[in-house]
Amino acid sequence: MPTTPEPTTAPEAAPEGAREAASGGESKPYSTRLNRDDRIRILTLREAGFTYLQIASQLHITHDQVQYTCQSQQATPKKARGRTPKLSEEDVDRVIDWISSSKRTRRMPYCKGTLGEEPGAKDREQ
Predict the structure, then answer these.
(1) What residue spans in the chain does CATH classification 1.10.10 cover?
(2) In whole angstroms, what is the distance from residue 31 CA to residue 33 CA?
């Protein structure tokens, strides 16, 4: 049975660029979802003759995202999976501001903060 030869250099000793090229140019393990504008940019650059790696490095996205978009040829992304957040970004900011507003609210136990006094209650009473 044939065996795989040992690598000549350790993976840790390989230069950074060589590791990125070997992994398909991905710079981060998790990627953000692409919106319609990003997909249009990808398809336009591909039609202009750019390679997947060139597009990925220019738009700061992964090689796999470029490949999937080019192969599907659809600018409109699929519907997002998973549950939508219960709090909007504005609500989260309001809660953070309320918690940070005083020493008492910063030290308040979680159950009292969620069940007792609610964020913005003082603003509504006045």
Answers:
(1) 14-72
(2) 7
Q: Where are the alpha helices (DSSP H) in 1-126?
A: 16-22, 36-47, 52-59, 63-72, 89-100, 103-107, 110-115, 121-125
What CATH topology corresponds to 14-72? Arc Repressor Mutant, subunit A (1.10.10)
pLDDT by residue (tens digit) across 41-85?
999 999 999 999 999 999 999 999 999 999 998 888 777 778 888
Which of 48, 83, 42, 43 is closest to 60 using CA atoms? 42
CA 41 to chain centroid: 18
The pair of three-digit structure tokens given for residue 78, joined into one six-digit string: 């699929």
Residue position matching structure tokens 């660029």: 17
The whole-model pTM stands at: 0.45
Which residues have C-beta within 8 Å of that of residue 106, sequence separation ≥ 6?
99, 100
